[in-house]
Amino acid sequence: MKLLFDQFLKEKQFKLKMILWSFVLYLSVLYPFISKHNLVVIIMTVSLFAFAGYAQFKNVSISSLLRLLLLIGALFYIRQTFRTFRGLEPGIAFLSLLLGIKVLEMNKKRDFFIFILIVELFLVAQVLSEDSLVIIVYVVVATIFLFYLIFCLNGESKEDFLYDKERLMVTVRIFIHSMPLMLILYFVFPRLNTGYLFPFSINTQSMIGFTGEINPGDIAKVASTDDPVLRLGFKNNSKLQQDEMYLRGSVLAKTNGLSWKKSNIENGHNYNFGNEPLYIYDVLFNELQASQVFALPNTKKIIKKSSGVILKQPTNTWKFVPYNNQKIRYQGVTTKTSPKPLNKNMRAHYLQLPENISVKLKSFAKEMQNKYQTTESLIAAYKIYFLKNEFIYTLSPGTYNKTTGIDDFLFKRRKGFCEHYAAAIGVLLRLNGVPARVVVGFQGGDYNEIGDYFLVKTKDAHAWLEYYNERQGWQRLDPTAWIAPSRIQLGASVFYQLLQIPTAVDRDNFLVNLKNNRLLKFLKSLDMIYYEMNQRFLEFDFEAQKNLFKKLKLNIRRPYQLMIGLTLLLCLLFFIYNYFFIKTELSHSIIDQSYNNFLRKIEKRHIHRELFQGPLALLKTLDPKRDDYHELSSI
C-alpha cells in the first residue's frame, strides 16, 4: 500500500513539474513579443495554466468534453475579436490558447512532447512579423533549447528528461555542425517578396502629432518620452549639423487657431528640383509600423530599401506602408531647388484663417504690418516681441483652448512648447498676408560619432513653420530657436539635461564632461554594433545576392531561377546520398538485418515497444520465463 502511495506522489510531482516547465516555456517565447499580443488572450492562457496546476494539485480530473468546449470557446473568441481566422494575429492567438488547453491534459511525456512542438510553432509564427537581428538570435537559441528538450524526452525514465549532460553535448554538436549549412542557406536561399502572404495587422496608429492634426500639447506629449524612432546615416561623406537636422513628416495647412490639420492640396511642394544630389541618407525605423516618411528638406525622391508601398502626398511628403515582416527602410536624396509661383487658389489656401479671431489679435497683427512692410522685417519684429515679453519654452505650459487659446498664449501666459509657437506665428503671418503652414516631424537627434549616424528619439519631436517668399519659395522658420536656441543647437537630449543641472554648475564644463563621458561612449558603441549588424543583416536582399553571384561568375537574374536551381541541387544531393550511403548500409549491414529481423519477430508476438527502447532495453522488460525469450535474446 505504501509503495502504491509513493508511486502516486511521484507521478503527481512529475506532472506538476511538467506543468511548471510548460508555463516557463510559454513565458520565455512570449516575452520578446508581448507588446504585440492581445492582452485578453494572454490572461486567458495564463488562467488555463493556473487551472491546470490547481487541478493537478487537487488531483481533479479534467474531462475531454471540457477541453473540447474550451477549444470551441477559444475559436469563437478569436473569430469575434479578429473577425477572421486568416492571418498571423488570429493564428498566434489560437496557438497561445491551444497551449493553455493542451496543458490541461499534461499526463505523460508524449503530452509534453506535443506541447513543445506547439511552442515551436508559436515561436516561429511570432518571428514572421520581426526582422530584428536580436530577436532572430533569441529565436535560434530558443529553438536549440526546445530541440534539446525533445531529445531528452527519449530518455528511459521520467526523471532524466529535464537535464541530461550527454544529450546536451550532442545537441550543441548538432547545432555547431549545422552552422555551415545555415550560413550557406542564408547567402544562397533566394529572397522572395511574399508581400502579404502572412497578413499581420501592422501598427498604423501614428504618434500623436503625426496623425494629420495637432492640438495644443500634442507634440509635448510625444517629446516627454525617450523612445528610439529611427536611425539616419549619410552616404556621400557629408552630413548636416545638429541645427540643420529637420525631418519633415506632416505638413498642416488648415488652422483653427492653435489647432492645425492637413487639408487637400492639388500641388504640394511648389519646387523645381535640380539633378545634382546634395545629401544622400539612409533611414532605418526602430519598430514595425506604418508611418509618415520623415525626410530632410528639399528631398527629391524616396527609394525603398524594404518591402512595402510608398504613397506620395502633397507638400513633398510621403507615407510608407511596410509589408508585414519588415521595418521601414528607405533612402532619401536631396537636391537644390528653385521656387514655383503660387497660383491664386494655392495662395488662398495658405492664407485661410479661423472665423473666431479676436479683435485684439487682428489689431496686433495690423499694427505690426503698418510698421514693417516686408516679410523679413515682420518676422524680426515678432522675434523681438517674443524676447522682450520673456516668453517661456516649456513641456508643461498648461492647457490651452485650441480655438481661443491663441490670445491667452500671446498676451497673457506667454509660455508654451514648439507647437504653440509655430501655430501662433503661422496665424500672425497669415493675418499679415504671408502664406504659411505648420510642419511636424523631428529636429536633431543624438549623433553617434562612432557609427556616424543620428539616433532620433521621440523627445526630438518638433513643430516649426514654413512661409512663402516670392523670390525664394517656401522658407523654414522655427520660433523655438528664438526662445530656446540651445534646443536647436544642441539637440533635445542635451538640452533637457541642461535644464536639470543646478545653476551653480558651469554649463561649458558640463558639456565637455558629457562629450567625454566613457559610459556614454560605451553605450554608443553598443548601439553602433546593433545598427551595423541590423543593416548588414536586413540589407542582404536579392540585389545583394546577385552581386555575390556575379563575383562567383554566376548570372542569376530572378529569384525564382535561384529557387529552381537550389531545389534541383538539393534533390540531386539527396539522391546521391540515399543511393550510395543509405542503400548500401541497409543492404550490407548484418546488424541492421538482425535488428529488422528482431522487429518483425516482436511484432508477430504482439510485444509492445516504446519508440525510445532498443533491443536490450526491451529485453529487460520481458519475463525470462517466456518460451521465446532465449530466441529473442540470441538475435
- Tell how many strands the DSSP assignment holds: 18
Shape: elongated
**Biggest β-sheet, characterized?**
6 strands, antiparallel
Helix amount: 40-55%
Query: How far is the first residue's CA from the last residue's CA?
Result: 39 Å
Radius of gyration: 34 Å
Overall mean pLDDT stands at 81
Task: Summarize the SSE layout with pairings.
Elements: H1 2-30, H2 39-57, H3 64-82, H4 88-102, H5 109-127, H6 133-152, H7 165-188, E1 213-214, H8 218-223, E2 228-234, E3 246-252, E4 254-255, E5 260-261, E6 271-285, E7 291-292, E8 299-304, E9 308-313, E10 317-322, E11 329-339, H9 344-349, H10 359-371, H11 375-388, E12 392-393, H12 405-413, E13 415-416, H13 418-431, E14 436-443, E15 446-448, E16 453-457, E17 461-469, E18 473-477, H14 480-483, H15 485-490, H16 492-500, H17 507-515, H18 518-538, H19 542-551, H20 559-588, H21 590-604, H22 615-621, H23 629-634
Q: Describe it for me?
A:
With 635 residues, the protein is of the alpha+beta class. The protein contains 23 helices and 18 strands. The strands form five sheets. It has a six-stranded antiparallel sheet with strand order 8-11-6-2-16-15. It starts with a helix and ends with a helix. The N terminus is likely disordered.
